[in-house]
Structure formats: C-alpha cells, structure tokens
Design brief:
Strand content: 15-25%
Distance between the termini: 81 Å
Largest sheet: 6 strands, parallel
Number of helices: 13
Shape: elongated
C-alpha cells in the first residue's frame, strides 16, 4: 500500500514537506508543492485526514452556524467561507438552525461540543452567555459575523453608519420625502438589525431637518415577496407618495421596485430606491446599494480562524469593522419634482 514515505521518495522531498504540501498547512514553496502533488497523483496516494486528526487532534473541519440558508446574505457568507476553506484544504460542516429553538439548542449544546470541528463561525447570531461558555470550554476558536460575541473575535459592519450613508445618498440628490422599509420585530432577536438600521435612517433624516412620517415607515420580513406586499400598501395607502425609499436590505429594495411598477411608477423618475447588501441581482435590477461584501466577510472569518488554528488554537478576541461601499446605479436620481 502506497504511503506518504513513498510519495516523499518519488518527489525527492522530506515527509514533513509532503505532508504540508498535501494538507495545505504550513509554508511550502510552489515548486515543492507541485512536485508533491504530482508524485501523489502518480502513485494514487490520498492524504488520510482521519489518520492525521488522530495524531494531531485536528479534524480539518470548520463548523459554520447560520439562522437560515434561504436568505441571500447567509448564502453569500457561506459561499465566501466555503471557497476559503477549500483553498486551505478544510471541510465545512453547515448548521442551519432555522426558526425551531430546539435546533439551536441541539447545535450549541450537543453537535458543536463533540469536538468534530476545529473552529466555529457564527453568522448573525447573538449567543447567550451559556452558549459562549460552552463553546469556549472546548477550546475551539470562534469568530462571529454580524455583532459582538464576548470572548470571541468579530467581523461586523457599522449598521447605523451604513443606514445613514444610504439615507444621505437620497438626501444628497434632493429627496426629502423618504420612506423606509424596515424588518419585522422577529428579526430583532439577534443584534437588533432592523432597529439599528432604522435608527441610522432616522438620524440622517433628523440631521437634515426632514420630517419623519410614521405612515412611511413600514415593515416586512427581509424577503422580496414580503417587501413587495408592504411597498404596495405604502404606495397605495396615503394621498401623498414619497419620492424615495430606503429599504433595509436589497431583497426588500427589489420588492419595492416591483411594487412601484405595478402602480405605473418609473424608477427612478417617480421613485428612487436604495438598499443594503450588494446582492447579486443588484446589477440586473439597476439597484443602488451599500455593498457590505458578504462573501468577503465569510472569507475573512476563515482566514482569522486558520491563523488561530495554526497558532495552536490560541486566539485573542478582536473586533474588526468590515468596509462597505456605496454602489450607485440607475434606481436613484434627483427627484423629478422639487419640494
């Protein structure tokens, strides 16, 4: 049976170098890496992660916990993290906790405590003190995406600031009659995202001296369908229509655009619309947005964890603010009629 020593002899390298080259762990020159891979392919050798995990205590597997796989943001984070893990030679175990509290309890009180993963990424989940203590007790690095986790590193964006930036873009174009589509109360559970983005909207409006119209602040479920229904009620429910809408997500902004078209409103001549995310459909829809680089957040989380793993699982908690970018497209313009 072909072993790693045979591969090392064929490649003219040490066993340690071949192991690093095939596992993706540690520094290996490009030439040596190619020689090791070529020799392994010629001999039909595949590195046994099971054997190496028994020796090192590592599984070469990272657990990623998300509230849902159906929302674009979460799927984009998964895509970014998965690509980075593949490049590093790691597997990914996905835990989709959904809306059932029992699933969340099982993940944090059972699955993640079995030490089948080398590290954990928690996406948009505000973990309780008990959940954090359980994870920290098994001595696995933890990175949170979306908000602070005591004792763990965090990658986040400034939710209030990006909502202000989105609103200020509309104000800068000359809009003063601006509506806001926010998230339902159910989405306040973890890090209070809807309320935080709404506060950014309200601050920008107040700073500009613009009136906040309660009937122009409506909620939806962060989906295109939910926002479509909410936007139809918004646009049909008052004698005076807003000239612009800031939606708390790109999916809700897309729903707003579709609803506006039902009323014969032209985008952006009759209604400007801006969202937050950087959704893949944004370019197709001509949507102006604040791009938060969800895939990049997933990739950075992985690189942060791998740094800790390669450092003997020692991780000093950090709080990193991920940069965002205003992407201006055709869905926003100067209002046709001035106030």
């Amino acid at each position: 049976m072909t072993g790693i020593k045979d591969v090392a002899e064929r490649a003219g390298l040490s066993v340690a170098t071949v192991s690093r080259a095939l596992s993706g762990k540690g520094h290996v020159s490009p030439g040596s890496r190619e020689r090791a891979r070529a020799a392994a392919a010629e001999l039909g050798f595949v590195l046994s992660y099971h054997a190496s995990s028994l020796a090192s205590g590592r599984t070469h597997n990272v657990g990623l916990v998300v509230p849902s796989v159906h929302r674009w943001f979460y799927s984009a984070v998964i895509e970014g993290a998965s690509a980075a893990l593949l490049e590093a030679g790691y597997d990914l175990t996905l835990y989709n906790i959904g809306e059932d509290p029992r699933h969340r309890h099982s993940v944090f009180n059972d699955f993640l405590l079995r030490k089948r993963v080398d590290a954990v990424i928690a996406v948009s989940l505000e973990l309780s003190e008990a959940e954090m203590q359980q994870l920290l007790a098994v001595h696995r690095p933890i990175v949170g995406i979306g908000g602070p986790l005591p004792g763990a590193s965090t990658i986040r964006i400034d939710e209030t600031a990006i909502a202000q930036k989105a609103t200020n873009h509309l104000l800068g174009l000359g809009h003063t009659k601006i509506a806001h589509i926010t998230g339902d109360a159910a989405y306040e559970q973890d890090f209070k995202l809807p309320g935080t983005r709404r506060s950014g909207f309200e601050k920008a409006m107040n700073d500009a001296g613009c009136a906040l119209r309660p009937e122009w602040i409506v909620s939806a479920d962060f989906t295109t369908e939910g926002a479509y229904s909410a936007a139809r009620q918004l646009l049909a429910g008052t004698p005076e229509r807003p000239t612009a809408v800031f939606a708390a997500s790109d999916e809700m902004a897309i729903g707003t655009i579709l609803a506006a078209r039902d009323f014969g409103l032209r985008i952006p001549d009759d209604l400007s619309v801006i969202g937050i995310d950087g959704h893949d459909l944004g370019n197709v829809m001509g949507l102006t947005t604040i791009d938060q680089d969800a895939k990049g957040q997933g990739a950075i989380a992985v690189r942060t964890l791998l740094g800790a793993i390669n450092n003997g699982l020692v991780m000093e908690p950090t709080d990193a603010e991920h940069p965002t970018k205003l992407v201006v497209r055709s869905s926003t313009a100067v209002p046709r009629l001035t106030d």
